[in-house]
């Protein structure tokens, strides 16, 4: 069930990437808003945030697919994700598996308690969205710093009691 939710969220984020790309390309057309650099940073931040979400939720979907493969069917034990990376090619030592969603990891547990990470889920699957999310936050902060601070002005008819 979590895999279907991740697929839906990843698809929604992918649509967000397309919208952000169109908004970014619109800045190249005549009549762009002024100051265009702040708009550029804001739209780049939107693109980075949507891309980070799309990559992360796609990774969650594939992680859930691996969990489903490992828990259903005749060839599910030992886990298919663990077989290729088994130490010394001995799959009889694989006892179980562990899954982590942050960072995205599929760990195989051997009968002596030691673990090794499956090569199906590289570390970049978590690092790339994290870098994009930090970039989006920094771009948003820099775009907001360009906006003038609006001070409230008091109405001349308003009386203040001392």
Task: Write up this protein.
With 162 residues, this protein is mainly α. The chain contains four helices and three strands. It has one domain (2-145). It has helices at 2-26, 36-71, 80-83, 124-145, and strands at residues 94-101, 104-110, 115-117. A three-stranded antiparallel sheet has the order 1-2-3. Helix 1 runs antiparallel to helix 2 (36-71).
Q: Which word captures the global form?
A: elongated
Strand order of the largest sheet: 1-2-3
When the domains are counted, the total is 1
Count, helices: 4
Distance between the termini: 63 Å
Write the layout of secondary structure elements.
Elements: H1 2-26, H2 36-71, H3 80-83, E1 94-101, E2 104-110, E3 115-117, H4 124-145
Antiparallel strand pairs: 1-2, 2-3
Helix pairs in contact: 1-2, 2-4
Please name the defining characteristics of this protein.
single chain, mainly alpha, 3 strands, 4 helices, three-stranded antiparallel beta sheet, 162 residues
Summarize the structure.
The protein is mostly helical and 162 residues long.
